[in-house]
Write a structure and sequence with these properties.
single chain, 355 residues, mainly beta, four-stranded antiparallel β-sheet, 48% strand, globular
């Protein structure tokens, strides 16, 4: 399905994001938020934040005030090293890739149980409506390494795995020296994106086109959606600045000659990929983070569960920041304030329609 324009609203006054609370590091009421790495919201509206330095989970009320902390840094029961959070009803799920295990707490902070999982993907987990906990993994077959998700039931048993189709090969910078090797993506070049929806289906695509596919198993396609796109140019000065900064950093370890052979200014695309990433909220609505010339705000194209394009929503945050947590009616964005302190901002989603 390809939509030429919004179907639910015709201008930017469709859905709005309204700030409702702000938690800032350095504020004693916020419990000295230090280095938040992720968050989830429970059905009662409490916000659970995975924080580092020290490692613990901080729980905040709707007003942004600290309610309690959960767990602590360590290897024992109810402890963790690198917590990645998920929520399902009154169950708080903590995946720890460093310890290769999943722990389960209730929302009061009581530790329930844990079980071995896999390492070492430090990426978000998801939990579908059936309570399956999806953790990213890498599989190897005849074609090489592929991305997949292993899904666990809430009792710790393995439910299944779902393989992510290969939608494209990103352009890479490859460097080697003295037995060491490094690979990284070329700035502004397209890359694969994927996420699991609340109904358990896989949504995947390639950021070089504003088009996504939906799969039940990873081997079929039940829906394709997107819209036409006008390329957004990347100013020459920005491309040159990005190249010079990255080349300088890489040269510190790999040497200027090696970097020049592996990576040149012309390798940086002249236009931005249509998509940066996308998110699926608990209603199944898809929020596609699209490229625009506006560097001060994030813009999302919103599609419903059938793939119909509803319209754009502008996020009042700088484009390099992303939402940490979603509910049907809220989202929380992580970033920094003007003083450089970490900050979490909570927004209400107002679904008004203006035809």
């Amino acid at each position: 399905m390809t939509s030429d324009g919004p179907t639910a609203w015709r201008d930017s006054s469709g859905w709005r994001l309204v700030e409702t609370a702000r938690i800032t590091g350095g504020d004693s009421a916020a419990g000295d938020l230090a280095n938040p790495t992720g968050a989830v919201i429970d059905p009662a509206g409490r916000l659970y934040v995975a924080d580092q330095s020290p490692t613990e989970i901080k729980v905040f009320g709707r007003d942004g005030r600290l309610v309690r902390t959960i767990g602590r840094d360590g290897d024992g029961p109810g402890e963790f090293r690198s917590p990645i959070l998920g929520i399902h009803g009154t169950s708080l799920v903590v995946f720890d890739p460093r310890l290769a295990r999943i722990s389960l707490f209730d929302t009061s902070g009581r530790f329930l149980r844990s079980w071995p999982s896999i390492c070492c993907h430090y990426s978000a987990i998801s939990i579908d409506r059936d309570g399956r906990i999806a953790v990213r993994m890498t599989q190897q077959d005849a074609a090489g390494f592929t991305s997949a998700f292993i899904r666990y039931a809430m009792d710790g048993t393995v439910a299944d795995t779902i393989q992510v189709p290969n939608d494209g090969q990103p352009r890479l910078i490859e460097l080697s020296r003295g037995g060491s090797r490094m690979r990284m993506g070329v700035p502004f070049s397209p890359n694969p994106v994927d996420a699991l929806a609340p109904d358990g289906t896989l949504i995947h695509g390639w950021t070089g086109a504003l088009r996504l596919a939906v799969s039940r198993t990873g081997h079929d396609t039940v829906q394709v959606f997107g819209r036409r796109w006008t390329p957004v140019p990347i100013p020459e000065a920005q491309r040159r600045e990005v190249y010079q900064s990255l080349a300088k950093d890489l040269a510190k370890q790999w040497g200027e000659e090696a970097v020049a052979r592996a990576f040149g200014p012309g390798d940086i695309p002249a236009t931005a990929p249509p998509m940066r990433t996308f998110f699926v909220d608990p209603t199944g609505t898809r929020w596609v983070n699209v490229a625009t010339a506006d560097t001060l705000h994030a813009t999302y194209d919103v599609f419903d569960t059938t793939g119909v394009y509803l319209g754009p929503v502008q996020g009042p945050w700088v484009g390099r920041y992303f939402p940490y947590a979603w509910t049907a009616d809220e989202l929380v964005v992580g970033g920094e304030n003007a003083d450089g302190f970490p900050e979490l901002i909570r927004y209400r989603i107002e679904r008004t329609l203006h035809r």
